[in-house]
Automatic annotation (TrEMBL), chain B:
Residues 8-125 form the Response regulatory domain. The modification 4-aspartylphosphate is found at residue 58. GO terms for biological process: phosphorelay signal transduction system. The keyword Acyltransferase does not apply. This is Response regulatory domain-containing protein. PANTHER family: TWO-COMPONENT RESPONSE REGULATOR, TWO-COMPONENT RESPONSE REGULATOR ARR22. Keywords: Phosphoprotein. It holds the Pfam family Response_reg.
Length: 768, 129
């Protein structure tokens, strides 16, 4: 029964997709899109969940889905009109259905009362004349299903439970139509005659062993007339072409009285050196046949695609498809026997264009999707991370031995580095996922929060297909949830207030994802009242979070809400209560190397902006020395590095100093001092300065002792292995096996700002 | 008496779970050559590329539903005689009647057991060994 368990896992995965389809369809209906396709897709989602659930005997789920489906069926057949109110009910029902799925999965409990009430409501919608019997409803349902043979023994498990049936005919006269395999085969044979399709994909070994396709084609031609088609689309551009590799695929239409064995015999000597596929019939272009069928025609046989035909033993002509593309149309090679490598190399010039026009579909079972256990991919990524570290170590060792960069060894290593990078990128791409999986949970949240707070809110989502590494996706859910709750609870006004302000009583909350300079940015905006700055300011002063004398810009006031211990709600609601404040959100976001900020316009709304790195697995960094420690500064933050001249360093105030970079002044920050590595800074002129730019665009000049170079590093969470450290984003392992800390540039900048005044540092005296 | 292992089957259902369950049932009966397609359009492409002896198809699918697939199969000479078993719920009675008009070989009402499915296939091909 292990296999059934495995199918059950698939079922729950599929349920997630179906629930998303269901919600998506219902939301489309809410937006006025209630065409038949949408309604049918909604129906099908519930129907499919019910069908699968029945097969696994998940009775409560089946029962609820059945009631839901019945109503949707009525909507589908226009017996029940899809009014906006009904769609809202259906959306709530989809939430309950999702709870049932989670419960069947063992991931939660269904509130029976809610479920029963919902089922009763659905029934009432299906049949408005039925007596409302909300309490009795689930009992009746249960009774109806007791008769169902769902709980059969596993060996007789029911497949695709649909309705409670104890008979298997639909009560009309029907004689199954019998057929024999021979009759079918005769049909196929009559239709295709003695035509075979032979697909030959030589491997490079075939040529290495001095065989060639032309000879094989000639052998095939002895069996009967052939038409050979060359698929040259796999030939790469010249600079990527490996002269000894094999790129071409031949598809041969062969008419012969001989059987498959005779055809295979032709390839006896190249066994294993080429991929061979022999199918009966034309098998060439199902798309054309399909198009003809859909157009109402019934062709006698699928016509062969009129592309690139070469007959043997006539001269081989490789021709691009007769599309009006400016491809070098005919590339003539020598008459047969053609030297295969020549035939392969010949169409190179035309290859990129030919690749587009010359499509020869080798019949396949359609595009398939592989479902892989995420743990396997994680393991792969970990391994690639180790590989990157290992490769760096190797490169470093070789460097230490003073091997010339032009030596074979060094060049081989360069190649290895490039390959390692490519592998890493490809592997990371496997794990990249659209943020959709997180976004699709949000409409429900918005519905629930809105109803809890008595607000009317509509969620608009944008950029759901923005891709980001899985490690980041998993961490997006909490902050987004918080920002949305905050936007509805604190941002949006009550419907009455909104009306009074001349706004639509229904507030709009927008959730968007986008890529910006190598990071993912999530924006949550509302069209509510905006932040009440006066109040925020006074609360911050009252709570002792800031000093009353401090002059703050509007933006600074807005961002006070991220301070620990800040809460503006007059009464603490269930929704965005004290449990997790925005400060906690900010901290957890920062721990991921992310930033969160808010901007607000009074009366018009607020926008939360959250940005995170695209991956939490690797980082391009600059390795620097500071006070005997090795640190990594994220490359994305570095604008330039320079060696300051004494005249460029100017003191600012009693403790600070700035660096004159061309026409502007940038505060100088000694990283060693900020992180507590040393008590006093050496003169900046003796070190190196990294000009960095923070998320908010503020610049700073970080002083380090020396720069080692640029490197890609594998991020190891410091929090998971040790604890969070201010100013440090994470750690990594360097080529020589040492652990180095990765600097959190923004945190270092803000740490420096907040630092209490220190005694005048010798740096400045020296600089002066 | 045909051997189940010599009959090629194409399972058509938009639901991965259902395809897996049907495949599992077919394997228990003794079928070996089992292919799958997620909708009628893919199924038809698949059949045109490589005919099958038996199609077991769901009815309600996106793109091309089971009924349209049946009509297309019947109108294409090489695969005209493909045995076609439609999976259906009780609610779809009218659809089954239409499928009968279009020449469905048999239908199978969900939920069904492995034995039930076997019976339906045997009614078409004769007893399976």
């Amino acid at each position: 029964m292990d296999e059934l368990e495995a199918i059950k896992v698939t079922f729950f995965q599929e349920c997630e997709e179906l629930l998303a389809d269901l919600e998506g369809g219902l939301l489309a209906m809410q937006d006025g899109n209630d065409d038949g396709d949408t309604v049918n897709a909604v129906f099908r989602a519930v129907h499919s969940i019910k069908g699968g659930a029945g097969a696994f005997g998940l009775e409560p789920l089946v029962r609820f889905a059945h009631v839901f489906e019945t109503l949707l069926d009525a909507v589908r057949s226009n017996e029940v009109p899809a009014t906006p109110d009904l769609v809202v009910t259906l959306l709530r029902a989809s939430d309950v259905l999702a709870d049932h799925v989670s419960s069947a999965r063992g991931l939660g409990v269904v509130d029976e009362a809610v479920s029963a009430a919902m089922a009763a409501e659905l029934k009432a919608c299906t049949d408005p004349n039925a007596a409302p019997a909300p309490v009795a409803a689930p009992v009746v349902e249960a009774a109806a299903f007791e008769a169902a043979p769902v709980a059969a023994a596993p060996a007789e498990a029911l497949i695709g439970a649909d309705d409670a049936l104890d008979d298997d005919d639909l009560g009309f006269d029907f004689q199954p139509m019998t057929i024999t395999i021979d009759e079918q085969a005769a049909d196929v044979a009559a239709a295709v005659g003695n035509v075979w399709t032979v697909s030959i994909r030589p491997k490079s070994d075939l040529y290495r062993k001095a065989n060639e396709t032309a000879l094989l084609l000639r052998e095939l031609a002895r069996l009967g007339p052939i038409e050979a088609t060359l698929d040259a689309s796999a030939i790469p551009p010249l600079d990527l072409l490996d002269a000894e590799a094999a790129y071409a695929t031949w598809t041969v239409r062969l008419e012969t009285e001989e059987d498959e064995t005779a055809i295979r015999e032709v390839f006896e000597f190249v066994d294993g050196d080429c991929d061979l596929e022999i199918t009966r019939g034309e098998g060439l272009n199902p798309d054309a046949a399909l198009a003809a069928l859909l157009a109402g025609e019934a062709p006698a046989a699928a016509p062969a695609a009129p592309v690139a035909v070469a007959e043997i033993p006539a001269p081989v002509v490789v021709e691009a498809a007769p599309e009006p593309v400016a491809v070098a149309p005919v590339v003539e090679a020598a008459p047969a026997p053609v030297a295969a490598p020549v035939a392969q190399a010949a169409p190179v010039a035309a290859a990129p264009a030919a690749a587009k026009t010359q499509q020869i579909d080798v019949p396949g079972p359609g595009q398939s999707v592989i479902r892989v256990d995420p743990e396997r991919i994680d393991r792969l990524i970990d391994l690639v991370g180790e590989l990157v570290i290992n490769q760096a170590m190797l490169a470093q060792r070789v460097g230490e031995y003073g091997i010339a960069p032009s030596s074979n060894l060094a060049m081989g290593l360069d190649e290895l580095e490039q390959l390692t990078r490519e592998i890493q990128d490809s592997v990371m791409a496997i794990r990249a996922q659209p943020v959709k999986s997180v976004f699709q949970r949000m409409p429900r949240l918005v519905r629930e929060v809105a109803s809890m707070t008595g607000k009317q809110a509509r969620l608009v989502m944008d950029g759901e297909n923005t891709e980001v590494d899985k490690t980041v996706i998993e961490r997006l859910s909490d902050p987004i949830t918080h920002m949305l709750r905050n936007a509805i609870d604190h941002g949006l006004e009550s419907p009455e207030e909104r009306k009074a302000a001349g706004k639509n009583p229904e507030g709009v909350v927008r959730l968007a994802a986008l890529h910006r300079s190598g990071r993912i940015v999530i924006e949550v905006s509302d069209d509510g009242k905006g932040i009440n700055r006066e109040r925020v300011h006074s609360i911050a002063i009252k709570k002792g979070l800031i000093s009353p004398e401090l002059q703050l810009t509007d933006e600074e006031i807005d961002n006070l809400i991220f301070l620990p211990g800040f809460s503006t709600a007059d009464k603490i609601s269930d929704v965005s209560g004290r449990g997790v404040g925005m400060d906690v959100v900010k901290r957890s976001v920062q721990a991921l190397g992310g930033r969160i900020s808010i901007t607000s316009r009074p009366g018009q709304g607020s926008t939360f902006t959250l940005s995170l790195p695209l991956t939490l697995a690797v980082l391009d960094g600059m390795v620097v020395d500071v006070a005997g420690e090795t640190l990594v500064v994220p490359l994305a933050a570095i604008v330039e590095s320079l060696r300051p001249k004494p005249e460029e360093v100017r003191p600012l105030g009693p403790v600070g100093s700035v660096l004159a970079v061309r026409d502007s002044f940038v505060p100088l920050i000694d990283v060693g001092l900020t992180l507590g590595y040393r008590e006093a800074s050496p003169p900046p002129t003796e070190g190196v300065v990294l000009l960095v730019e923070g998320e908010d665009g503020s610049r700073a000049a970080l002083v380090a002792d020396a720069i080692h170079g640029q490197r890609q590093v594998v991020i190891k969470s410091l929090e998971q292995n040790y604890q969070q450290v201010d100013g440090v984003a994470a750690a990594t392992i360097l080529g020589d096996g040492r652990v180095a800390l990765i600097l959190d540039v923004d945190a270092v900048i803000s740490l420096r700002r907040r630092e209490p005044p220190r005694p005048v540092e010798p740096t400045l005296i020296a600089a002066e | 008496m045909p051997q189940a292992s010599s009959i090629s089957v194409l399972v058509v259902d938009d639901q991965l779970t259902m395809r897996a369950l049907i495949r599992n049932a077919l394997q228990q009966i003794g079928f070996k050559d089992i292919r799958e397609a997620p909708d009628g359009e893919e199924a038809l492409k698949n059949l045109l590329a490589k005919p099958a002896n038996l199609v077991i198809s769901d009815f309600n699918m996106p793109k091309m539903d089971g009924l349209a697939l049946l009509r297309a199969v019947r109108s294409h000479p090489p695969i005209r005689q493909t045995a076609f078993v439609m999976l259906t719920g009780r609610a779809d009675r009218e659809l089954v009647q239409r499928a009968v008009q279009f020449g469905v070989n048999n239908y199978c009402v969900k939920p069904f057991t492995v034995q039930g499915l076997r019976d339906k296939i045997e009614q078409v091909f004769g007893q399976l060994t």
